[in-house]
Write a structure and sequence with these properties.
The complex is a heterodimer of chains A (about 400) and B (about 260). Chain A has about 400 residues and is mainly alpha-helical. Chain A has helices at about 1-15, 20-55, 65-75, 85-95, 110-115, 130-155, 180-215, 220, 230-260, 275-300, 305-315, 320-330, 345-355, 360-385; strands at about 55-60, 80-85, 100-105, 120-125. In chain A, strand 1 (about 55-60), helix 3 (about 65-75) and strand 2 form a beta-alpha-beta unit. In chain A, helix 2 (about 20-55) packs antiparallel against helix 7. Chain A is elongated, with a radius of gyration of 31 Å. The model of chain A has no long low-confidence stretch (mean pLDDT about 85). Chain B has one domain (about 5-105, about 170-260): Rossmann fold (3-Layer(aba) Sandwich). Helices cover about 40% and strands about 25% of the residues of chain B. Chain B is built from 10 helices and 10 strands. Chain B has helices at about 5, 60-65, 90-95, 110-120, 125-140, 155-165, 185-200, 210-215, 235-240, 245-260, and strands at about 20-30, 35-45, 45-50, 75-80, 80-85, 95-100, 170-175, 205-210, 220-225, 230-235. In chain B, strand 1 (about 20-30) and strand 2 form a beta hairpin. Chain B is globular and about 50 Å long. The relative contact order of chain B is 0.17. The chains are: A mainly alpha (about 400), B alpha/beta (about 260).
Chain lengths: ~400, ~260
């Protein structure tokens, strides 16, 4: 125990003096998430604001053939731009990105309309173009509104109530809470939080193992009259402390950042005050032991600082896997999923941010399984240091 | 194996059992590679014993077994009265080890490096402060010991590493090629330290592949080649026994005979 504490204190002191460790633990790791978050929110805000205000411009070929349709579109904030494209030219213009959508009114349009036959119009667009998608959807909706308006007046002219062709009245009720809607963006925070924790301990884990061996200070250390496992446990503890420090900075940055971003104008509200930050901190604490032990075990197998850096960069990706999986399958929290470290932290943190009630049993399962996995890995790290091969 | 190496009593050159470091029949393989085949010798209190041999002869492996970093496949040994296998932690308390690679922590000052090992050895603050003061004076480290070790020269790093190994005042001192890469002044300082330790009654064991160093410094020499001890004794005894003019010729003769054994 005494050796553990001495090693822990020394690793803390030494690494608090190391510029690279400090930079990655206290600056890059913790601020990467909040900065990304701010950028994304900023872009989202800009997009939403511009979409609402922008007047849509629609290129139309043969607009003179459909004066009523043109008036209808103009009444609904669509500016008509007359062009003279056949289908082939229109295709090229869309592909070049000169226009987002082109409406072609064919020559037989007026005649068929007069005869009460379906009058063709062609809407040319690129469905693979996400940016144009909303714009095209709006034009499509307007066209179909115009179509049903015409149908209604035709029926009326024949003395039939237009209601008969509206057998269903669909009323959509959106039950997502403002905090739930914010989740789309805030959901990424959980990964940033886990990432920041791992970044916080990364260099310490390397320095305490591969770094120590490469410097040649490992062999003298192992001649100390203390159990080797105690030495490595001290190092893991120091790594944990740096990870928690990094976590605290990340959460502080998020708490401040969320206040500065006008989420309400996006129809979202972020449930992320100091109270939630503290609870998020608590559910993330067990992950520190797991991450520190995992990085220490991986780094123990490497010969050099560089090699360790390469492998640990991969370790940074490990917590993403369950989170991506959860996203793809829209997993809801369950007792079983709480047994998967990193996924359970993701689900718990998400729940806290959504302001959902968290069952005590799920929290307990998450804490216990993650701690157990961390302890097993720490024990493995201890065993690795008992091997003679650790001398290299 | 040559019968002579097995039958010769280990302590033939010492009186009684006053030896402080003693190993017998050490053998160590790494996979199928033999690092040490048959190493037996004793090093006494108040003597400097040199472990002499070419590169790859098994010197480092032998010293690592002595400092309980490695466990031998066969054979064993003891430091003072403690058995290497039975009480490795106890053995570590009795020895100060300067391994072949002795890096220091660059973000700690020289003194903090020394203090760290003092605390790990279980010394109290007062003792650490006193020992560290003594060693800084002895090794003439005063003008750099408070600086971070990041900018140290190799000689300065080695001084810190030696002080670190001696902070708990071990009775037995084991050094693996301590003069490697040192300049003349640092080598002289190291030699005078080793002599001083001997005069204080310590048991000093160091390895080297430099003949002159061993010849000038050592009271007893153990020549090792291909993992086998091929000659033991005072420099004079070894010379006399091999009939060679110099220790170097004796060394070459000894190694040659070892190669003949294969």
């Amino acid at each position: 125990m005494r050796a553990l504490v001495i090693v822990w204190l020394k690793e803390m002191r030494e690494n608090l003096r190391d510029r690279r460790t400090l930079l990655s633990a206290l600056v890059i790791g913790p601020l990467f998430g909040p900065v990304m978050f701010a950028l994304m929110i900023g872009l989202l805000l800009e997009k939403t604001v511009s979409e609402a205000d922008e007047k849509v411009v629609l290129a139309v070929t043969g607009s003179a053939r459909a004066p009523n349709l043109m008036r209808f579109l103009e009444e609904h904030d669509v500016a008509i731009q007359a062009v003279a494209f056949d289908l082939e030219k229109a295709r090229i213009a869309i592909r070049n990105g000169r226009h987002e959508a082109i409406l072609i009114v064919p020559a037989d349009y007026p005649q068929r309309l007069r005869d009460g036959l379906p009058a063709p119009v062609q809407l040319v667009s690129d469905s693979a173009d996400n940016r144009a998608g909303k714009y095209v959807a709006r034009i499509r909706a307007l066209l179909s509104a115009y179509s049903s308006q015409l149908a209604s007046s035709r029926l009326l002219a024949r003395g039939i109530n237009a209601e008969v062709i509206r057998p269903l009245a669909v009323d959509e009720v959106d039950v997502s809470t403002p905090a739930g809607r914010a989740l789309l963006v805030l959901g990424m925070m959980t990964y940033f939080i886990l990432f920041a924790m791992l970044m916080g301990g990364l260099y310490l884990a390397i320095d305490a193992t591969a770094g120590e061996r490469e410097r040649g200070s490992l062999e003298p250390l192992l001649t100390i009259p203390a159990a080797r496992s105690q030495l490595i446990y001290g190092k893991i503890l120091a790594t944990c402390c740096f990870m928690l420090l990094s976590l605290a900075i990340t959460l502080t940055a998020f708490t401040v950042g969320v206040k500065l971003v006008p989420l309400e104008s996006l129809g979202m509200s972020a449930n992320f005050g100091p109270g939630v930050a503290l609870r998020v901190f608590s559910v993330a604490v067990p992950f520190a032991l797991l991450g520190a032990s995992l990085m220490t075990v991986v780094a123990s197998f490497t010969r050099t600082y560089k090699e360790a850096q390469g492998y640990l960069t991969l370790v940074l990706l490990i917590p993403t896997l369950p989170i991506v999986f959860a996203g793809l399958y829209s997993l809801r929290p369950s007792n079983w999923l709480m047994a998967v470290p990193s996924l359970s932290q993701h689900l718990l943190m998400t729940g806290l941010i959504r302001d959902e009630p968290l069952p005590a049993l799920q929290i307990a399962i998450s804490v216990l399984t993650t701690l157990a996995a961390g302890l097993i890995l720490a024990w493995i790290a201890g065993r690795l240091y008992e091997r003679e091969a650790i001398l290299g | 194996m040559h019968p002579e190496h097995r039958s010769r009593p280990v302590l033939h050159l010492v009186l009684g059992s006053a030896s402080m470091i003693e190993v017998q029949g050490l053998r160590k393989y790494f996979g199928s590679v033999a690092a040490v085949r048959e190493v037996s010798f004793a090093a006494l209190d108040g003597q400097i014993t040199g472990l002499l041999g070419p590169n790859g002869a098994g010197k480092s492996t032998t010293l690592r077994i002595l400092s309980t970093l490695l466990e031998p496949d066969a054979g064993g040994g003891r430091i003072d009265s403690l058995d290497l296998r039975a009480d490795p932690l106890g053995v570590r308390r009795l020895i100060g080890v300067l391994p072949h690679s002795s890096g220091v922590y660059p973000n700690l000052s020289g003194r903090e490096n020394i203090d760290y090992f003092g605390r790990l050895q279980g010394l109290d603050r007062g003792t650490i402060a006193r020992r560290s003061r003594e060693l800084v004076e002895l090794l003439e480290m005063g003008d750099f010991v408070e600086r971070r070790a990041k900018g140290y020269s190799q000689g300065q790093r080695l001084k810190v590493a030696i002080a670190r190994a001696l902070v708990h005042s071990p009775r037995n001192v084991v050094l693996d090629e301590p003069t490697n890469g040192l300049d003349v002044m640092a080598t002289r300082a190291l030699r005078s330290l080793l002599r001083r330790l001997r005069d204080e009654g310590h048991c000093v064991l160091f390895s080297s592949h430099v003949m002159q160093e061993v010849a000038t410094l050592c009271d007893a020499v153990v020549i090792i080649a291909h993992g086998i001890v091929v000659a033991r004794g005072t420099p004079d005894q070894i010379r006399a026994r091999s009939g060679a003019e110099s220790l170097e010729d004796a060394f070459v003769a000894a190694i040659g005979s070892a190669e003949g054994l294969q």
